[in-house]
Amino acid sequence: xxxxxxxxxxxxxxxxxxxxxxxxxxxxxxxxxxxxxxxxxxxxxxxxxxxxxxxxxxx
Length: 59
Known about the structure:
mainly alpha
């Protein structure tokens, strides 16, 4: 569903990943299929990594 949504060393910002997470939930209408749940989990991991990267960069 989301090719390349999770790559090691993401170059996308946390805001960009968060936007994709929100879009996924909107399309799903609040109930995720198994495939959507897997995509969501990958996006959350990518978002967390982006947040950590932004915090380290800010310091």
